[in-house]
């Protein structure tokens, strides 16, 4: 009792945010007292400067994110040196905002976790340099994090998912299918032989000049295509499905991008418009591209599920497909994958949209 009174006396003299931090560092349970470990996660692998603080039980104490999407939309794609500069301008602000929202001081952290690969070297460097500065200043342990592993494991924040499970990661930089056998234990089944689906959708959106359309000007290319596709008829264009002759789980999107490019050029000629103006059939093209991407992804995933089931990697009691990465926020693609999981008695799990795209929570 005396100790508690003394503690309360000290607490009363502390500023509010420090009190909150102190109280949050403990969980009071009858007869037990736990000290929660707090991890600061930092993500700068591509075009988002993000951070979050989580405790060891999975509670998100605070987070902040600065997206560079609008800038990169204007320059027509990510220019690594521009991304680096924007990360430099924002990293300190974002980390401070995160700590403030969490009510935690750097001293109260148990560790600092940061994305170290894969990603743009110049972008990764900013997060790494800033993290190591904090690590040295506050003498904290450093946890290097693999960006794709973080995407794959994010589902375990919101759902109880045991190992092994099958994961499909589809983003602007990556496209892969893997069996997650444990933390940092992945068996790769297939990957994109060229570009990632998000990159491809970004290029198509740029080629369709969607940035000039007020409704889509601030959206990422993939999101703009998804929204535009709702008004289109996919049957008006027929694109060849990539790698239909390859009996494996790899992906390819650059051939489809070239085919779409050709169609756009042809339609521009037919409609007598200049490159840069929006075609009358833009929504139909968006719908057809989205459908081709969705069915290519679904077919390769179907093959991976059948392989896993035949080889005993996925047991009937634990047949789970996790889909994550920025492109996984596309509802048309999710619904197409649902057809596959229903037909193979699998459960499809996707993190909430906010956790599908890059964020600091998945790193923490
Ligand atoms: O995971 P993410 O935030 O960053 C990377 O690691 O790449 O993914 C960003 C990618 C972008 O290419 C963006 O166009 C795409 O995800 N994306 C979408 C959607 N929202 C974002 N693609 C299709 N449909 C969406 N709704
Ligand atoms: Zn990502």
From TrEMBL:
Its EC number is 2.3.1.234. It comes from the Eukaryota. It is found in: Mitochondrion. GO terms for biological process: tRNA threonylcarbamoyladenosine modification. One of its GO terms (molecular function) is metal ion binding. CDD domains: ASKHA_NBD_OSGEPL1_QRI7_euk. Binds 1 divalent metal cation per subunit. It is an enzyme of class 2 (transferase). Its cofactor is a divalent metal cation. Keywords: Acyltransferase, Metal-binding, Mitochondrion, Transferase, Transit peptide, tRNA processing. Residues 59-364 form the Gcp-like domain. GO terms for cellular component: mitochondrion. It catalyses: L-threonylcarbamoyladenylate + adenosine(37) in tRNA = N(6)-L-threonylcarbamoyladenosine(37) in tRNA + AMP + H(+). Gene3D superfamilies: 3.30.420.40. Pfam families: TsaD (PF00814). PANTHER family: TRNA N6-ADENOSINE THREONYLCARBAMOYLTRANSFERASE (PTHR11735), TRNA N6-ADENOSINE THREONYLCARBAMOYLTRANSFERASE, MITOCHONDRIAL (PTHR11735:SF6). Required for the formation of a threonylcarbamoyl group on adenosine at position 37 (t(6)A37) in mitochondrial tRNAs that read codons beginning with adenine. Probably involved in the transfer of the threonylcarbamoyl moiety of threonylcarbamoyl-AMP (TC-AMP) to the N6 group of A37. Involved in mitochondrial genome maintenance. Belongs to the KAE1 / TsaD family. This is N(6)-L-threonylcarbamoyladenine synthase. The gene is OSGEPL1.
């Amino acid at each position: 009792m005396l100790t508690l009174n003394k503690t309360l006396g000290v607490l009363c003299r502390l500023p509010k945010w420090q009190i909150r931090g102190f109280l949050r560092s403990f969980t009071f349970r009858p007869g037990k007292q736990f000290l929660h470990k707090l991890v600061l996660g930092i993500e700068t692998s591509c075009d988002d400067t993000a951070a979050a603080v989580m405790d060891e039980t999975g509670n998100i104490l605070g987070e902040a994110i600065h997206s560079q999407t609008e800038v990169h939309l204007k320059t027509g794609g990510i220019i690594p040196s521009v991304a680096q500069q924007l990360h430099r301008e924002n990293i300190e602000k974002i980390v401070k905002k995160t700590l403030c929202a969490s009510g935690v001081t750097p001293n109260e952290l148990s560790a600092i976790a940061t994305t170290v690969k894969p990603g743009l070297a110049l972008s990764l460097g900013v997060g790494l340099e800033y993290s190591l500065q904090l690590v040295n200043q506050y003498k904290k342990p450093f946890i290097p994090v693999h960006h794709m592993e973080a995407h794959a494991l994010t589902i375990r924040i919101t759902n109880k998912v045991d190992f092994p499970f099958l994961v499909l990661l589809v983003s602007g930089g990556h496209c892969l299918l893997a069996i997650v056998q444990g933390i940092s234990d992945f068996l790769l089944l297939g990957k994109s032989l060229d570009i990632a689906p998000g990159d491809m959708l970004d290029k198509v959106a740029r080629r369709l000049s969607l940035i000039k359309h007020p409704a889509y000007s601030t959206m990422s290319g993939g999101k703009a295509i998804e929204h535009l596709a709702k008004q289109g008829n996919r049957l008006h264009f027929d694109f060849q499905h990539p790698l239909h002759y390859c009996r494996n789980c790899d992906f390819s999107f650059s051939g489809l991008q070239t085919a779409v490019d050709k169609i756009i050029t042809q339609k521009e000629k037919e409609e007598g418009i200049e490159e840069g103006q929006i075609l009358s059939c833009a929504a139909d093209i968006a719908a057809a591209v989205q459908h081709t991407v969705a069915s290519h992804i679904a077919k390769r995933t179907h093959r991976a599920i059948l392989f896993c089931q035949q080889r005993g990697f996925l047991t009937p009691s634990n047949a789970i497909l996790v889909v994550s990465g920025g492109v996984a926020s596309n509802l048309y693609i999710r619904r197409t994958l649902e057809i596959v999981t229903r037909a193979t008695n699998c459960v499809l799990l996707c993190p909430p949209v906010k956790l599908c795209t890059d964020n600091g929570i998945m790193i923490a």
